Amino acid sequence: MSIPNEALQKLVQEIETQAITAQREINVVKAAVASKQRDVRMLELTSTEVKQLPSDTKVYEGIGKMFMFAPINNVQTRLASETAQLKSDISSLDKKLHYLETTHKNSREHIDQIFKSTGR
Predict the structure, then answer these.
(1) Which of 10, 19, 31, 92 could form a Cys-Cys staple with 107, CB 3.0–4.6 A?
(2) At 114, which helix (H) or strand (E)?
(3) Whole-angstrom Cα distance, residue 117 to residue 120?
(4) What pTM was computed for the model?
(5) Cα–Cα distance measured from residue 101 to residue 29, given in angstroms and rounded to the nearest whole number
């Protein structure tokens, strides 16, 4: 029992659309992961620099176009929490990336399988 050409074409188009969508999303997720990894690195470097400062050093944080005094402990706590949040985001993006890569791979395998089974 063979599938009519029109139905086969429609099936291949749907699978190919799914593969293309997955590939686009893979690129977006990879860019987001790279961006968040850069942010984590910057926060870690900043945290390292702040830890090296004497405890009585005045530290200022940028707020819009101005700077406000902030105690060193508050700055270190904020840096640590932002780093933890970014690492959590990266972890969830990695899971999404794995899912998208699997979807893309499976779509390509299905297309290849359809072409092999029809002898084209």
Answers:
(1) 19
(2) helix 72-118
(3) 8
(4) 0.81
(5) 11
Q: Determine the residue type at 101.
A: E
Q: What is the dihedral of CA 64, 69, 70, 72, to 10 degrees?
A: 120
Radius of gyration of the chain (CA): 25
Which residues are paired to 119 by β-bridges? Answer: none
Bridge partners (DSSP) of residue 63 are 66
CA angle in degrees (0–180, nearest 5) for 36-24-120: 150
- Report the SS3 class of residue 49: helix
What are the per-10-residue average pLDDT scores of the chain (120 residues)? Answer: 73 89 96 97 96 92 93 94 97 96 92 77
To which residue do tokens 């870690």 refer?
Answer: 44
pLDDT at residue 94, as a whole number: 97
The distance between the two most distant Cα atoms of the chain, rounded to a whole number of Å, is 82
Q: Which two tokens stand for residue 21?
A: 């969508």
How high is the pLDDT of residue 3?
66
